[in-house]
C-alpha cells in the first residue's frame, strides 16, 4: 500500500490519532497484524491515557467492568472489577510499554487538518506543536488515517450559564479541570448534575466534606454493582491468566448484553427491579420515589453504576444528600432554588456534562472540498462515505467502549489486507442505494443531543447501522464481505454526497 509522499514531508503508512485506551489498542492490532507497516500515534497532550489521564477528580473510575473495558490480549489482574482511574491509566501505560507502542507516540502533537489527495493517494496532515516560544506547525503524509480520539472535547466541558454566578462567594470547579490542591475538608459541597461524574464525586468527597449535596433537575437511573467480582476471583484462582481472562470476559459480555436487552424489551419489569434494589439499600420508599425514579426507561440514557453501593451508603451515613429542584440563581452563600430553598455551599462542582467533538476536531478535506461530516454515513461503525482511507473508533454506549474499539481496529487491519490483496492504494465505502438517516448515537442523554447533529449519520440497514450489540457485531464484523461496499479510489474526485 505504498504511495509517493509529498516532497520534504515525513511519510508513514498509518497515522493513529490519540494515545488513549483506543489508540494504544489500535497500535497493538496494527503492529501485530501488519508488522511491516510504519506508523505513529499523534497525541495532542503531553502524556498517554486519554480520558484516564485527563480527569483527576476524586473517585474517578470506570462504570464498566475491567474484564470487558480492558484489552482482550492483556488480562486484567487487579482485584477490583470496577477500577479507579489511576489503576486504568497504569494498565494502559503497561500495555504500551510491554509492546513497544510507547516508542511510536509523539506527544504534544495535535492534528488540526487532514487533506486527502486522490492523485497521490495519501493524506497530508497539518500538525500543531506547543513550544517554549509558542505554537509551531509541521506536516507529514500518510496513506491511512485512523482517528482514535473519541468524541469528547478535551479542551472544553459543557458549561451552562448560571444566573448570579458572579455573586457566589465560594469556589466553582468543573470536574474536567480539577484543581490539584482543592481543599474541601469540612466544607459544604454542592455537586450540580446526576450523571456518572456526579455519582462518583459524591461518595468520594463525602469522606472529608461536612456535607455533599447532589443537585439534580430530574432523577437518573443509578444501580449498585459489586466492586469486586467474586466469581471472577474463583475463576482466576483455577485457570491460567489468559484463559481465565477470556472466560470472565465472555461471562461479563453475556451478562451485560442480556441485561441491556432485558431493559429495552421489558422496561416496566426493569424499572421495578432497579427501584426495588435501590429501595432495599436506602430503606425509604418516599426518598426513592422523589429522587431516584426517572421519567424515562432504563437505558434510554446510560445507566450509572455505583460499585458496592458507595453513593447510597454515603447518604445513609448522613454525609450526602440529593435535592431535586431547579436553580433560580446563585447567591453569595450558595444556590437559591426555584422552590425558594437556599443550598449553602463553600464549593460548587458543575458536573454538568461533557462537550462532544467529532474526531478530535480535525478539519477534513478531500481533493480540495471540505468534508461536511453530517452529510456522510458510517460503514460498519468504522469508515465514512466520501472520505477515502479514513477510519474512526466509536465505542459502545451501552457496554464497555473497548469491545467495539477492538473490533474496529481489527476491521481496519482487515481493510488494509484487502487493499494489499487487490492492489488498491485507496478505498472508500459506498452504499448500493440510498440510505435513510439516523443519528450516530441514539441515547437521549443531554450531552449527546446537544451536538450529535454535527456528526456523521448511520443508515437504516446493515452494514450502515451502528449496532449496540457486541454479540451480533463480533459474529459479523470480520466475516462480512468488503468488496460489496468498499470501492477503489483510482483518480481524483470530489467529495460524494450520499
Account of the protein in words:
This protein is an alpha/beta fold and 498 residues long. The chain folds into 2 domains: 10-154 and 355-488, FAD/NAD(P)-binding domain (3-Layer(bba) Sandwich); 159-352, 3-Layer(bba) Sandwich (FAD/NAD(P)-binding domain), CATH 3.50.50.60. Helices cover 29% and strands 24% of the residues. It contains 13 helices and 27 strands. The chain has helices spanning 21-33, 51-54, 66-69, 85-98, 196-206, 230-238, 241-265, 267-282, 285-291, 310-316, 401-422, 446-449, 470-476, and strands at residues 10-17, 39-42, 105-106, 109-117, 122-131, 134-147, 152-157, 171-173, 188-192, 211-216, 222-225, 304-307, 320-324, 327-331, 334-337, 342-344, 347-350, 354-356, 363-366, 369-370, 378-379, 383-384, 390-392, 427-429, 438-439, 457-458, 486-488. The strands form 8 sheets. Strands 1, 2, 3, 4, 5, 6, 19, 20 and 23 form a 9-stranded mixed β-sheet that branches. The chain has a 5-stranded parallel β-sheet with strand order 8-17-9-10-13. Helix 5 packs across helix 10 and helix 6 (230-238) runs antiparallel to helix 7. The longest helix has 25 residues, at 241-265. The two termini are 27 Å apart. The relative contact order is 0.15. Mean pLDDT is 91; it is low at 1-7 and 491-498. Keywords: FAD, Flavoprotein, Monooxygenase, Oxidoreductase. Pfam families: FMO-like (PF00743), NAD_binding_8 (PF13450). This is NAD(P)/FAD-dependent oxidoreductase. It comes from Nocardia acididurans. Belongs to the FAD-binding monooxygenase family.
